Amino acid sequence: MSYTLHLQILISALCLLFCKPSCATPNNGRLDLQLPFVPVKTPPLSKEHNFTLRHIYHKGSHRYPRLFRKIDIHHDSLVQDGTKESCCEGEATSTAFAVKSNALEIQRLSDRSRHSIDSLLEAGEFLGEPVSLTSDAWTIDRISGPDVSDKSTVLSFAHIAANAYVDPPHGGGEWTNIGGGFNYTEDFGWERDGLRGHVFADTENKTVIIGLKGTSLPYFDDGETSNNDILNDNLFGSCCCGQGGQYAWKKVCDCQTSTSTCNSSCLMTSLRRKSSYYHAARHLYHNITAIYPDADVWLTGHSLGGVVSSLLGLTYGLPTITFEAFPDALAARRLSLPTPPGYSIGDVEKHYTAIYHFGHTADPVGKCLS
Fold this sequence. Notes:
single chain, alpha+beta, two-stranded antiparallel ribbon, 17 strands, globular
C-alpha cells in the first residue's frame, strides 16, 4: 500500500472521529468540515493583584455641576498614606497595594447599561418609589471580588480609601478638563466643589478600584470640600436634612413641617437633586468604565465616601468595601433604588449585595463586618 493511500485513510479516520459534517454550500457543492470544539479556559476567580494609582478625578456638584477634571498619575509617583505621622513628617508611600480576590455571589440587575439604569431611576423618581421588576430582570452572578476574609486585602482597601483624602502626589500631571468645555483655571474655588475619586488598576488592567473621598473636617478646611461634604452628609444620613437638632447642625432643606415631623416627598426631592454626590459618582463611574471597558470595578470609601460607594455599588451591582460609613439604607430607600422581588433595602439576609462595611453596624445596604 502506497504512502499516499495510507495518508488518505488516516485523514478519513480522523475526520470521522473529530469532524462534524455540515450542509454543502450552494456555491461549490463541497462538504464543509467543522473542527472539534476546544473549551476556552476562564480566568481564575481567586488570584493576587497589585494595584497602582492611575488617575485622580474631580467631578463638580453644586457651584460647578458641569466641571469634570482628571490627573493621570505616573507609575513611579508617590502619594501620602493619609496618616498624621506620614503627613506631618512629609513621608510618602508607594501607590502599589496588594489585594487578593475570591469568588463571590452577587445579585444584581441583568441589564446594567447606563440607559437602562437611568431610565429606572427616573421612573422611580416620578413614582416616588422603586420600579417594580420581575425576577427575570435580576441575576445572581458568580464573580471575582475582594477577599474580605484576608486581613492584608482589607488593609489595602483601607489605605486606598484614605488616599482619596490626599492631594495629588508629586510626579502627577496637570489637571485637564474632560467635560463641560469650560476653563476653570482662573477660578481657584473649583477645588472646593464636588466629589474626588482616586482610580487604581492592577497590572493587567483587568480590575479597577475606585476610592471615593469622604468628609473633610471644616476646622482644617484649606481648599477642601467640607461645606458640600457636610451638606451631603445631612442629605444622605439625617432624618430631616439636619433640621430640628442642635444650633450648629447644617440645615440643607426646608422639609420639616413641625417639631418632630418631616415631609417625606420633600426629603426625596432634596436628595435627588443633581448636585448630590450620588449623581456625581454615577457620572464618574461611567467615565472610568469608558477607559476600562472590560475591567471588573470594585469600590471603596470612608465615611461619606463609603456611603456614596455603597449606593453606587447597589445601583450597578459592584463589589464594595467601606469604612466607618454612616447608615446608608435610608438614603437608598429615598433614592428609590431598584430591588429584587420580595426584598427590602436593609434586608441583608436575602440579597447578595457584595457590599461589606467595616466599622458600621446600623441600617446597612450590605453586610457589617468587624
